Structure formats: structure tokens, C-alpha cells
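request received
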Amino acid sequence: MFPYSCKLCLKIKIHCVNQRMFCTSSLLSPLQLPSQMETHLWYILPNEVKSESLMKKYVDLLSPIEKEHVCSMRRDELQKNALLARALICSQVSPRSIEFKKNAHGKPEVCWQHSDDWHPPPLHFNLSHTSSLIACGITVGSPIGIDVEEKQRTMKNNILSFARRYFSREEVERLSAISDPEVQRQEVIKLWTLKEAYVKALGTGFAGAPFNTFTIRFGSANPNPNAKDSAMVIVPLENPSLLSTNWRFAQVELAGSHYAAICRENGGISEGAPMKLIVRKTVPLVEEHCVSEIDTVV
Amino acid sequence: MASIAGSSSLMASLSCHKPNQALSRASNFNAVSLAINGKSFPSLKLHSAPSRLRVSCAAKPETVDKVCSIVRKQLALPEDSAVTGESKFSSLGADSLDTVEIVMGLEEEFGISVEEESAQTIATVQDAADLIEKLIEKK
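response:
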């Protein structure tokens, strides 16, 4: 029914009671920001969004610059997905009070337009999409990066050549030891999403943290990545003893078709407390339903 | 006072902001005689030297074509789809995984090694081709 799995969860609560329908007159839902301990992951399946009039409403949500960006996409499918991605963010956070800007490295950020007596929440978001799914991670008070890939995605290059080119030696060793080629392919893609989510959370671009300069290690004590107590840590290759535990990871499957990786900073989550990941599927302005709430381990 | 017929247009074309245009107009005058205040000056030979006045050192068309075909293959685009030097990878639908696979393909095809800092600056096919030629030159 809910075809997802999470390697890090201790407790999985499945809720599908939270189904909300929006009437067309109230186009924008009230702000529903995550608490500091939560991470929200929203996703859209573009193939399920077909209504022309709905697409027009999405266009109306955009600023002129964003409209231009959407129109610069060359293929209809790309245009639609670019539009949906922006509608996803704008429908979750009132577009009238925010603008989007890019940081020094090109990472999109929220820029609140506010009056002097209102202190807007430190909202962070990150988008990722494939041709068939668009996802957005939202936190308050902590940088976030997410990445999604289709489970069935094939690599044009040889899997291990790809791993050797981009991953660290420790990671290549772990992946080379997998005997089943299909499982190996899946693990390469999952690891890619984790590393990409981390680099996106850092916000310094691909060159800021080249993939082969750090290892994502699964639970130092237990080499089995499926173990419930496995946690993911960053090991910078320059100084392997300096494990970074500032970052939390989660890996989930979405809609039975995609791997998603989420990475956020610890900020707001007290030591030892679990990060709560809430996954919701949505059609912006129309409906949303909560797919799962997951308590992830440290 | 220059007494060449059409001198003002020649001066105008030499001082215009688009050097290539100036050259294409001036290339009709291989030799020009200037007579100023009755004194005549030796002929000015205008050499067309487009490579010196080009704004950027663009890669060879063959390089651009090879990049286009690697991109088409990676993104599984039909043969007749429009992929040119100006094509932006993001507009063609390449995500980050496609981009690194393309970089890998280019490294293998051209026998080069692309640093992450350089890879990050590539936005269009032309950028990739220019970088490739720069790296080949360095070898």
C-alpha cells in the first residue's frame, strides 16, 4: 500500500488520515511550516497533474523572473515539471511574502519580504526532480539538501567505472563487494542520492565538496546497511578521524518508483533525539495526503 | 581633411564597436589611399585577421559536434532534436547524474581529466567544448 522503506527508522507511523482538500476559492493554504525537529518532504507525480486550468493557476503563482525561467525550458515536459516544482514551493509557503534568490553558489533560497516588526522563520528548502517525480524538502532553522532518482534508472557508463570515478575508495570497496549486479546498481544510485543530498545541503555546489573527498559510511559498528541501528556519518578523507555528525541523513522510497535522500543539519534537534521526517504527496492547490511519518535514528 | 570619397564611412566602420563587422566592411578595401590636406599617405593595407579580433576563443565545430553527440546519447534524445553549442544542459533535461555521466563520457572520448571546479562552470554545450580544447591544449 505504501511502498517505501527507510533504513534508518526505529519507529514507522503510517498516517493517511490527513487528507485535505482545498476549495478553489482559497488558493493558498495557511503556512504549515515544520517544527525545528521536523523535516517535511513533499512530492508531486507530474503524470497525475493534467488539468490545463490548474496549470494556469500555477503560472499565476510565479514571479515574472520565475515565469521566464519556466518558459526557457525547451521541451513541454520540462516546462511542465519546472512549473510544478515552483508551484509546489509557492503553494506551501505563501508566495506573496517571499521571493527566491540564489546564494553565492547558485543554490536557491527563500528571501522573506517582511515588515520590521515581523521576524520570519528561517525557512530552508531544497528541490529535486526526475521526469516523473518532483520533491521538495522543507525545514526551519537548518540547511537541507535532497535528491531523488528513479529506481530503474540505468547508467550509460559501467557502474563500477562510474563509482571509481566519483566515489571514495572506501565506498568503491563496499560497492565492489556486492555480487548481484542489480543490487549493486541500486546501491550506486542510492549512494549517489545521499552524496548529492549532502552537497546540496552544504550549498557550496558540486565543486565545494567533490564527491570523492568524503565517504558516507553506514554505521561503523555494523557493515550491514539494512541493520536498524545503522547511522550514516560523513568521513572527510583529509582527516578521517574527524567524523562529522553534524548532518542527519534519511533515505526513503517514494511512490514505489524513486529513491530519495534527505540531508539536514542537526540544528534544532537535540542530541539523541530522533529527526522526524514527514512525507506528503501533493497536487498543489488541490490536495495533499500524508504518506508517512518516520522517526529517524541519530 | 581626408579627401577620400566615403572616408567618413570608413572611419565610422573602423571605430564601430563590433570589430567583426568592421572587418567585413573594410575587407572590401585591400588598399586605401588617404589624402589629408593635399598630402597623400602611403596606402593602408587592411589585413583581415579575424582570429585576433574574435571576442572569445571558441572551440572547433568538430569538438562541438562530438559533445553534441555524447549529450544526445546520454539524454537519449532523438537524432533530429536540436542540440547546438548554445544548448543549455539544464534546458535539455540533464540532471546532475546526467551531467557527471556526460563529463565522464567526454573525459573518455577526449582523453582528458575534468576537475570539479571546471565541471561546475559548464552550462552549455559550447562551454564543454571550449573547456575540452583548453584541457587538450594543456596536455
